[in-house]
Design brief:
Nucleotidyltransferase, domain 5; 20% strand; alpha/beta; RNaseH-like_sf; single chain; globular
Length: 184
Protein backbone atom coordinates (compact mmCIF):
# COMPACT_ATOMS: atom_id res chain seq x y z
CA UNK A 1 0.00 0.00 0.00
CA UNK A 2 1.21 3.47 -0.90
CA UNK A 3 1.87 5.70 2.10
CA UNK A 4 0.34 9.11 1.50
CA UNK A 5 1.14 11.41 4.41
CA UNK A 6 -1.08 14.45 4.81
CA UNK A 7 0.68 17.20 6.73
CA UNK A 8 0.14 20.52 8.48
CA UNK A 9 1.79 22.44 11.30
CA UNK A 10 1.05 25.39 13.52
CA UNK A 11 3.58 27.96 14.63
CA UNK A 12 4.62 29.65 17.86
CA UNK A 13 4.93 33.10 16.30
CA UNK A 14 3.17 34.98 13.52
CA UNK A 15 4.70 36.01 10.21
CA UNK A 16 4.66 39.63 11.43
CA UNK A 17 6.32 38.71 14.74
CA UNK A 18 9.38 37.47 12.87
CA UNK A 19 9.33 40.10 10.11
CA UNK A 20 8.66 37.47 7.46
CA UNK A 21 11.47 35.08 8.41
CA UNK A 22 9.63 31.74 8.50
CA UNK A 23 12.67 29.99 10.00
CA UNK A 24 12.06 31.95 13.21
CA UNK A 25 8.37 31.09 13.58
CA UNK A 26 8.91 27.84 15.52
CA UNK A 27 6.59 24.82 15.51
CA UNK A 28 3.99 24.55 18.26
CA UNK A 29 2.31 21.38 16.95
CA UNK A 30 2.49 19.36 13.73
CA UNK A 31 0.00 16.72 12.64
CA UNK A 32 0.15 14.07 9.95
CA UNK A 33 -2.17 11.35 8.74
CA UNK A 34 -0.57 8.27 7.21
CA UNK A 35 -2.61 6.09 4.87
CA UNK A 36 -0.28 3.16 5.52
CA UNK A 37 -0.66 3.38 9.29
CA UNK A 38 -4.30 4.47 9.01
CA UNK A 39 -3.95 7.01 11.80
CA UNK A 40 -2.98 10.50 12.84
CA UNK A 41 0.34 11.43 14.44
CA UNK A 42 0.79 14.52 16.60
CA UNK A 43 4.26 16.00 17.05
CA UNK A 44 5.48 18.57 19.55
CA UNK A 45 8.49 20.78 18.93
CA UNK A 46 10.83 18.23 20.54
CA UNK A 47 9.70 15.54 18.04
CA UNK A 48 10.66 17.21 14.76
CA UNK A 49 13.23 14.50 13.93
CA UNK A 50 10.45 11.89 13.95
CA UNK A 51 8.26 14.12 11.78
CA UNK A 52 11.05 14.69 9.26
CA UNK A 53 11.67 10.93 9.14
CA UNK A 54 7.99 10.24 8.46
CA UNK A 55 7.85 12.86 5.70
CA UNK A 56 11.01 11.53 4.04
CA UNK A 57 9.72 7.93 4.09
CA UNK A 58 6.31 8.82 2.63
CA UNK A 59 5.52 7.85 -0.93
CA UNK A 60 3.74 11.20 -1.23
CA UNK A 61 3.36 14.17 1.14
CA UNK A 62 0.16 16.15 0.57
CA UNK A 63 -0.41 19.56 2.10
CA UNK A 64 -1.97 22.92 1.34
CA UNK A 65 0.81 25.50 1.02
CA UNK A 66 3.25 23.22 2.82
CA UNK A 67 6.02 23.78 0.28
CA UNK A 68 6.15 27.55 0.79
CA UNK A 69 5.08 27.75 4.43
CA UNK A 70 5.33 24.57 6.49
CA UNK A 71 8.63 23.33 5.05
CA UNK A 72 10.43 26.67 5.53
CA UNK A 73 9.19 26.73 9.15
CA UNK A 74 10.24 23.10 9.67
CA UNK A 75 13.59 23.54 7.91
CA UNK A 76 15.28 25.05 11.01
CA UNK A 77 14.87 21.69 12.77
CA UNK A 78 16.83 19.66 10.20
CA UNK A 79 19.93 19.84 8.03
CA UNK A 80 18.09 17.88 5.33
CA UNK A 81 16.58 19.73 2.38
CA UNK A 82 12.93 18.79 2.79
CA UNK A 83 11.77 20.03 -0.60
CA UNK A 84 14.34 17.88 -2.38
CA UNK A 85 14.12 14.81 -0.13
CA UNK A 86 10.35 14.38 -0.17
CA UNK A 87 7.80 13.64 -2.89
CA UNK A 88 5.13 16.33 -2.67
CA UNK A 89 1.77 17.49 -3.89
CA UNK A 90 0.95 20.96 -2.63
CA UNK A 91 -2.73 21.45 -3.43
CA UNK A 92 -2.51 25.23 -3.15
CA UNK A 93 0.49 25.50 -5.47
CA UNK A 94 -1.11 23.11 -7.95
CA UNK A 95 -4.32 25.13 -8.01
CA UNK A 96 -2.30 28.35 -8.30
CA UNK A 97 -0.45 26.97 -11.30
CA UNK A 98 -3.76 26.05 -12.97
CA UNK A 99 -5.77 29.18 -12.09
CA UNK A 100 -3.10 31.84 -11.54
CA UNK A 101 -4.47 32.53 -8.06
CA UNK A 102 -3.65 31.39 -4.53
CA UNK A 103 -6.71 29.76 -2.95
CA UNK A 104 -7.26 29.25 0.77
CA UNK A 105 -7.99 25.72 1.94
CA UNK A 106 -11.27 27.02 3.33
CA UNK A 107 -12.45 28.10 -0.16
CA UNK A 108 -11.57 24.74 -1.73
CA UNK A 109 -13.16 22.78 1.12
CA UNK A 110 -16.32 24.89 1.03
CA UNK A 111 -16.71 24.49 -2.73
CA UNK A 112 -15.81 20.81 -2.96
CA UNK A 113 -17.02 19.42 0.34
CA UNK A 114 -19.45 21.99 1.70
CA UNK A 115 -17.38 22.33 4.88
CA UNK A 116 -14.98 24.88 6.32
CA UNK A 117 -12.09 24.96 8.73
CA UNK A 118 -12.72 24.72 12.47
CA UNK A 119 -10.62 27.73 13.51
CA UNK A 120 -7.78 29.88 12.18
CA UNK A 121 -4.02 30.19 12.50
CA UNK A 122 -4.62 33.27 14.65
CA UNK A 123 -6.57 31.10 17.12
CA UNK A 124 -3.67 28.64 17.22
CA UNK A 125 -1.26 31.49 18.05
CA UNK A 126 -3.54 32.64 20.88
CA UNK A 127 -3.71 29.09 22.24
CA UNK A 128 0.10 28.89 22.14
CA UNK A 129 0.38 32.11 24.15
CA UNK A 130 -2.16 30.74 26.64
CA UNK A 131 -0.08 27.56 26.95
CA UNK A 132 3.08 29.60 27.62
CA UNK A 133 1.29 31.64 30.31
CA UNK A 134 -0.49 28.78 32.09
CA UNK A 135 1.57 25.69 31.32
CA UNK A 136 -1.71 23.80 31.00
CA UNK A 137 -2.15 21.15 28.31
CA UNK A 138 -5.62 22.24 27.13
CA UNK A 139 -4.33 24.96 24.76
CA UNK A 140 -1.91 22.44 23.20
CA UNK A 141 -4.77 20.01 22.76
CA UNK A 142 -6.80 22.77 21.09
CA UNK A 143 -3.92 23.45 18.67
CA UNK A 144 -3.53 19.74 17.91
CA UNK A 145 -7.27 19.31 17.29
CA UNK A 146 -7.38 22.33 15.00
CA UNK A 147 -4.31 21.14 13.10
CA UNK A 148 -5.75 17.61 12.80
CA UNK A 149 -8.96 19.03 11.32
CA UNK A 150 -6.89 20.92 8.73
CA UNK A 151 -5.08 17.68 7.89
CA UNK A 152 -8.42 15.87 7.52
CA UNK A 153 -9.83 18.65 5.34
CA UNK A 154 -6.70 18.54 3.15
CA UNK A 155 -7.07 14.75 2.88
CA UNK A 156 -10.74 15.03 1.93
CA UNK A 157 -10.05 17.75 -0.68
CA UNK A 158 -7.25 15.65 -2.19
CA UNK A 159 -9.43 12.51 -2.27
CA UNK A 160 -12.28 14.48 -3.83
CA UNK A 161 -9.93 15.72 -6.55
CA UNK A 162 -8.59 12.23 -7.21
CA UNK A 163 -12.08 10.73 -7.39
CA UNK A 164 -13.72 13.45 -9.51
CA UNK A 165 -10.80 14.81 -11.55
CA UNK A 166 -11.64 18.31 -10.34
CA UNK A 167 -12.21 20.39 -7.23
CA UNK A 168 -14.68 23.19 -6.71
CA UNK A 169 -13.67 26.50 -5.20
CA UNK A 170 -16.02 28.85 -3.39
CA UNK A 171 -14.95 32.22 -4.76
CA UNK A 172 -17.94 34.06 -3.30
CA UNK A 173 -20.10 33.77 -6.41
CA UNK A 174 -23.37 31.84 -6.56
CA UNK A 175 -21.76 28.79 -8.15
CA UNK A 176 -18.35 27.41 -7.11
CA UNK A 177 -15.58 27.50 -9.72
CA UNK A 178 -14.73 24.02 -11.01
CA UNK A 179 -11.02 23.39 -11.58
CA UNK A 180 -9.74 20.23 -13.28
CA UNK A 181 -6.90 18.49 -11.42
CA UNK A 182 -4.79 15.44 -12.21
CA UNK A 183 -4.01 14.28 -8.68
CA UNK A 184 -3.08 10.63 -8.21
Amino acid sequence: MRDIVYFDLETQRSFNDVKGDKSKMGVSVAVTYSTKAGKYFVYGEDEMDALVTQLRKADLVVGHNHMEFDYPVLQKYTVLELREQTVNLDTMLDLQEITGRRWKLDAVAAGSLGIGKSASGVDALKWWQEYLKTGENKPLIDIAEYCAVDVKVTKCVYEYGVEHGHVKIDDGSAVPVEVAVSWK
